[in-house]
Amino acid sequence: MTLFERVFGGNDAVYGLTEGAIDAAIAQHGEEKAVSFPNTAYALPCYYAVTGTKVTNLKELKEALGVVKSLMTRENKLNDVFMSGVATALCAEFIEAIKYIDGAQPYEEPCYGHLSDAVIRELGVPLVTGDIPGVAVILGSAPTAQEGVDLVKSYQAQGILVTLVGGIIDQCQELGYKTGANVRVIPLGKDVTSVIHVVSVAIRAALIFGNVTPGDAGALMTYTKDRVPAFVNAFGPLDDVIVACGAGAIALGFPVITDDDKDVPPIPKSLIIQKDVSKFNATSLEARDIKIKITNIDIPVAFASAFEGEIIRRGDMQVEFDGSRVDCCELVQSRDMSEVEDHKIEVIGPDFDEFEVGSKHSIAYVVEVAGKSMQTDFEPVFERKFHSYLNCIEGVMHTGQRDMIRIRISKDAFAAGFRARHIGEVLYAQVKNEFEAVVDKCQVKIYTNPEDCTKIRHEIAIPAFDKRDERLSTMTDESVPVYYSCIMCQAFSPSHVCVVTPERLGLCGAVSWLDAKATNELDPNGPCQVITKERVIDERIGEYEDVNEAVKKFSQGALEDVSLYSIMEKPMTSCGCFECICGIEPFSNGVCIANREYAGMTPLGMTFPELASMTGGGVQTPGFMGHGKHFIASKKFMKAEGGVARIVWMPKELKEQVADRLNETAKELYGIENFTDMIGDETIAEDPETLVAFLTEKNHPALGMDPMM
Amino acid sequence: MPFNRKPQKFNAAIKTVEIGTGDKKVTLGGENVFPFYAFDGEIANGPKVGVEISDLGLENEVPGVKAYYEGAASIGEVAKKAAEMEGADFVCLRLEGGDPNGANKSVEELVAAAKEVADAIDAPLVVEGCKNVEKDSELLAKVAEALQGKNVLLLSAREENYKAVGAAAGLAYDQKVGAESAVDINLAKQLNVVTTQLGVKPESIVMNVGSASVGYGYEYVVSTLDRIKAAALSQDDKMLQMPIITPVASETWGVKEAMAEEEDAPEWGSREERGISMEIQTAAASLAAGSDAVILKHPQSVATISKMIQALV
Fold this sequence. Notes:
The complex is a heterodimer.
Chain A: H1 3-29, H2 45-51, H3 58-71, H4 78-99, H5 117-129, E1 135-139, H6 145-157, E2 161-165, H7 167-174, E3 185-189, H8 196-209, H9 217-227, E4 230-234, H10 240-251, E5 256-258, E6 271-273, H11 280-288, E7 317-322, E8 328-334, E9 344-348, E10 359-361, E11 363-370, H12 379-383, H13 386-391, E12 396-401, E13 404-410, H14 411-415, H15 420-434, E14 441-447, H16 450-474, E15 482-486, E16 498-500, H17 513-522, E17 530-532, E18 536-538, E19 543-544, H18 545-554, E20 580-585, E21 590-595, H19 608-615, E22 624-627, E23 647-649, H20 652-670, H21 688-698
Parallel strand pairs in A: 1-2, 1-4, 2-3, 4-5, 5-6, 7-10, 8-11, 9-14, 21-23
Antiparallel strand pairs in A: 7-13, 11-14, 12-13, 15-16, 15-17, 18-19, 20-21, 20-22
Helix pairs in contact in A: 1-3, 1-4, 1-10, 3-4, 4-10, 5-8, 6-7, 8-9
Chain B: E1 17-19, E2 26-28, E3 48-54, H1 63-68, H2 75-84, E4 90-94, H3 107-120, E5 125-128, H4 133-146, E6 153-157, H5 162-172, E7 176-180, H6 185-197, E8 205-208, H7 218-234, E9 245-247, H8 249-252, H9 256-259, H10 271-289, E10 293-296, H11 299-312
Parallel strand pairs in B: 3-4, 3-10, 4-5, 5-6, 6-7, 7-8, 9-10
Antiparallel strand pairs in B: 1-2
């Protein structure tokens, strides 16, 4: 039998039953008899929400059945299946409504039947906040009572609201499992039609919390699909009526997971066959995109930022991992969804117990993540947080990054039971929590065998780091489709906006283009927003209409236009957090750069703080700009004025920091070898005259360039 | 050259938010000119003044406040007198006793107090939590439930708990949501964005963009208020057009100038006069910078500020 036949058959059967029930009720009570559910302002909520009509008596109910009939079209199209599913659900609501005639109480302990509006308002708030991350509807009897109860328990442990229909209710009772609204396991009823009471919850939630207008079926289905994180677990064997109800659930956006594969063709993301009941939970969560918040990290010691600065001295140390002596590394890798089993933590090699007190070893931990919105560009962003995560563990000290890490575990932490797998627990919980927006699944592998660590470091980690570095160094402003704004500092500098591009990182030095991109994806309403770069005004100075519009918007109109590559024409503003300040030096046609750490005098006659006071505050100061250290070696540095060849002076320490990359850029742009040797520093000159003499001697290219002013 | 009057016209306006029900209900916002720029255009509604009372009673109040409420035995009676105060437009109940680091009163006890106050007055009611994020999530949700139909404003939903407070107040129980941020235009806007994404209607949101007492970094408050009003009106920024409420009393009565007893600082004169002065100055500045409502405590401050508003609108 095809799915069409099964759904249509089930729908017809329920329709027949409903018609019979309504006719019988009319025969018994007369047409004028009132029909309603107790304690709701929404009449028959499902019918009201779909059609906008409130049914109040049996006569109207009979008329409503006519409307339902009109939904039951019989073409072999998916839409007909869904509409027949909706029709089945409405029939179920009618049958249930008749049960309540004359204030009857058709349900008794432990079943609830219809749920009042008050319950929905109360449940609605935690549903909206995510404190109840999902709603499970379990239908039928599990293969064994124990499997059924285990499934209920697994959802309950995750805070998911569980509703039960049919045999599963008896199975819970059989094993004495506690149910009730207070423990968020709600048995609805034993007839399959009682499933409508949870549908009614979802639908009233849309009316109450979603401001959906009754009768606007499209908006209703969009709301339930996007905002009500419900799903169905239906145990086989499925009869046609259940299949028809399932079609209704799918129409509302609720996936159905079943263990019955007989005559049930899977529909991707909607109707999923999972033969293994113990995997219903994981399959359902993945299908409905439900992410469980981790509130407690399962480790035997405390975890808090208070421990971040904790130093563990040699004498207090149980064991040490030292990347400077032996092979160590930390790595994040993106994987396919199918390759990651959420919360799997493996320790491969000896645990801390097997190491001698005070000894030094190898460690490599690989955090494998998967997610629909995950991108490899986020890997280093996560990885950079490991330092802070591991340091927050009481009794653990972490320094360095990549393959130059050092970790010490204190004797106290070890005595409290801290072992290798707990490192995995912390990384798992933190990555899942902090990067919830992009990480759907996460597993951690911790290697402590020296051979494994050597292999991972040299064959996996180092190639991965090299690849990333290469990507960063080859990424140009031209090679990316968009830039990002950053307004993190606006609290202090209200009109400042950084435009972050691959070749011009934020002036604080802390926000690269990749960071800005990740910030935007992880926090779409946050400080970093996409800026398109489609309408070029002037390529030379890097001016775009799109960028100007963005800057105007984000500075609340304080700035009209900025260039990305000029210090003289419409330069980018500075807040106050710049790593360096670059200022024009008129005698040499060049610029001097001072970094924040430099305390001395510059040939401009100003110290860093003096320069800062005239550069900051979100105003455009032609001739001066704040920037990150990394920007100094960029080919876009003052490109409009001739590029890095304008740099005539830097503090010695800064010069040494940027020498390699700056020399490379100068060689590529002008064919000059060892360009930094031509640049002055405080040991050579702190005044313009001595500086110019030095530059002349070195034949610095700036001297021959056009005046900047 | 003759003076040529050029009214500054905007094609945008602050949204209106109603608080309370019946004859006494108040409307915040609605203006489409800068604060008190009545010469540019008519000011719709005009700023409102609220009177703060606390579940902790009057024990720590200055004599003038105690004297005003003399004879009021219950929180309900205190609320009644607050509502009758000259110049008062609404009452603000601060449930500061809920603070887990303070009196740590139970949610039930505080909800009962809120209910008593709501039943005692027909003036609009603002209910402020205890400022503890977790406690407020639960407390304000329960208050919203208990005061269904009263159309109260709940202060505040913050970045950490806007979902719980916003969903309960703005969605489940149809009250008004106060969105509180810490003196930063971008954070204020971001909170409005995420709260509306939750499903709360923009017309149900009032902002508290943070405050301070004059002399305590108050310049930041002024510049934030200024910039929000400018963005709302001149740039038609819809996510900054919510009216602004500023709790003043809770800031000004806690600073040294309002706390130091006369015997400890005789050269400063009467403590009560100093406190009133701080309260009036801060309130006047907040209104001049763009606040649509202020919350005050001392009867003299309430009378003075409301007189100022009447004279300027």
